[in-house]
Amino acid sequence: MSNIEQFIEKFKKGFDSEYLEEVFTKGNCYHFAVILNRLFGGFIYYSQIQGHFINVVDGHGYDITGMVEINEEDKYDSLYTIHNKDKLLHNRLMDDCVYLRSR
Questions:
Q1: What global pTM score does this model have?
Q2: pLDDT tens profile 82-100
Q3: Would you kindly state where each structural domain of the chain is located, as residue ranges?
Q4: For the chain, what is the HEC assignment?
């Protein structure tokens, strides 16, 4: 088990695991990716297919559930790449996921 997986396991201790997974996979996944990124480095990526942020370290993706499979069809991109490709999507992600602004 990697250090990141150990951290995630400890992070969930004392909480209802299903509740935390719900919180950090249904609307707050960016913020958990930031926590992992600050502690372990790597890069934050977003999948338009899954509508989900993960942190990738050494080729392995992680979210609140632990290590996640990174498939080509998931089309994970960084916010920088999304900004350059699709400014409307980037603005929506910034408002809805990063800054949690209400419209």
A1: 0.90
A2: 999 999 999 999 999 988 7
A3: 3-76
A4: CCHHHHHHHHHHCCCCHHHHHHHHHCCCHHHHHHHHHHHHCCEEEEECCCCEEEEEECCEEEECCEEECCCHHHCEECHHHHHHHCHHHHHHHHHHHHCCCCC
